[in-house]
Write a structure and sequence with these properties.
three-stranded antiparallel sheet, rod-shaped, single chain, about 120 residues, about 55% helix, alpha+beta
Amino acid sequence: IEILISVLVLGIGLLGIAALQSSSVRYSQSAQERTTALILAGTLTEIMRSNPDVARTGSYAGDCESELLAEWALQLQAATGTTTCPEVVWDAGAGVYTISISWQDEKVTGTTNFAIQVRP
């Protein structure tokens, strides 16, 4: 009887460890998507800063259809595994771009979004 009880306790413990491993993999994948999206947002800010004359006219504002953003948006969509289109808004009065990225993350939270402001 003691051996059966100890095997049962060990089995329950191993099932708990397997569940933790599964959760760990999901959270790691979600964190990798967020990190990659943040890096790509930083890449866009550097692209804007490398061409300040064009950036200060608001040319980078738009969505996936914008000529200057199309390739970057495709990279972002591939990194996050979604077809959601990021938004880049130009505030001429403040001279600031706002980069908004949002996507469905079914692995963990449902929706992930963040916004970055950059001055070219």
